[in-house]
Design brief:
This protein is mainly alpha-helical and 74 residues long. The protein has one domain. The chain is 66% helix and 0% strand.
C-alpha cells in the first residue's frame, strides 16, 4: 500500500535529485523509495553482522523453531 510523505529538503538537493531521476528515467518518488529501502536493508545487515556468532543457539525440536531457523539462519 502506498502512502504520501512530505519532506523538507534543501532546494538545491531537490533540483539535483529531480535532474538525476530524469536522467535515469524514473520518477523522483521511486528513486527516493529505492534509496530508503537500500538504507533500511543496509542497516539491518549491519546490525545482523554485528551480532552474528555472538549468541549461542539452543536447538529445539519444535516446528516454530525450525521455521525461524530456516528463515533467519540459513
Amino acid at each position: 500500500m502506498k502512502g504520501k510523505l512530505t519532506l523538507t529538503i534543501d532546494r538545491d538537493v531537490i533540483l539535483a535529485a529531480q535532474r538525476h531521476a530524469r536522467s535515469v528515467g524514473v520518477p523522483l518518488s521511486s528513486l527516493v523509495e529505492e534509496l530508503l529501502r537500500a538504507m533500511i536493508s543496509n542497516n539491518q545487515e549491519i546490525f545482523a553482522a554485528r551480532w552474528r556468532g555472538s549468541l549461542k543457539i539452543v536447538e529445539r525440536d519444535e516446528p516454530r523453531f525450525q521455521v525461524f531457523k530456516h528463515k533467519y539462519l540459513t
